[in-house]
Each structure stands twice: as structure tokens, then as C-alpha cells.
Fold:
Amino acid sequence: MLDISNPIVMAGLFIGAILPFVFSALAMQAVGDAAFEMIEEVRRQFKEIKGLLDGKAKADYARCVDIATTAAINKMILPGAIAVFTPIFFGLVLGQKEMLGGILAGVTVTGVLLAIFMSNAGGSWDNAKKYIESGAHGGKGSDAHKAAVVGDTVGDPFKDTAGPSLNILIKLISVVSLVIAPLI
Structure:
């Protein structure tokens, strides 16, 4: 049983509540970095492959797939390491089982709420853009459409990456905690 009047437990709650935000920020940064790598590769191909703009040459699709695959693996190492090593650090290294309990509670409560928020907000930004593109508020090319495109640029990683991956954060921290529990 966790006693939230215990400062160790409360510190764990705060640390756990922060982790979903850090994890989500790192996941969204990974998406942005991968997108910029892809943009640079597409620009390079347009410059170097003659006839690509005219549709007379084929693009190097394998290179683009390689960029996406490499980024998906390499850029998620830090968020994954946070999920795995947080319970190990606080549970085994510091020996703070009460703090680890607080971390689990904080990650779970904040992570679930943040995941729901991100998935819904991302979907709302996407739907807003589609609504404007259907002719509302001036349609395509309007200032409202430009703003909606910017919103959708943030919304896509919200609903497609950061929101759903919070489930993995919660599960991974919980499973690692359960595995190391007999050792604490």
C-alpha cells in the first residue's frame, strides 16, 4: 500500500507523472528528425536523378524506406531506455521500492490521460484540416487552411506516434518493475 503522505512516495509520483511528457517529447522529436532526413533525401534525388521531376526516371524508394526504418529504430533508443532503466535505477540501484510504487502510479495515471488527450487532439487537428479543405472557412489556400496544415503537422505525430506509444511506456515500466520486484 502506498502512503502518499510519505515524501518518498510523493517524489515518485511526481517523477512518474513527468515521464510520459518526456517520453512523448522524445517520440515527437524522433518523428520530426526522421521527416527532415526524408525531405533532404527527396530533395537530393530531385537534384541528382535526371528526369525525376518529369516522371521519366524512377526514384530510389529503397533509400527512403531505409531512412524511415533506421530512424524508427535509432531515434527511439533513448525513449525505450528511459522506460527500461527508470524502474531499474529507482528500484535496484537506489533501493527505493516506495518511490518505484509512486513512479508506477504517476506514469500510469498521467500516461493514460496524456495518451487519450494526444490521440483525440491529433484526430481533431486532422479533421479540422479536412473540414476546411471541404470548403469551410475559405477552403484550400485560405489563412485558415494554412493554420490547419500547421496544426495537422503537430497532430499527426500526436495521434500516430506519441499517443499510442504511451501505452508501451506504461506496459514496459510495469513489466520491468514486476521482473525486478523479487530483487528489491
Remarks:
- The CA atoms of residues 126 and 152 lie 5 Å apart.
- The chain is about 80% helix and 0% strand.
- The chain has a mean pLDDT of 94.
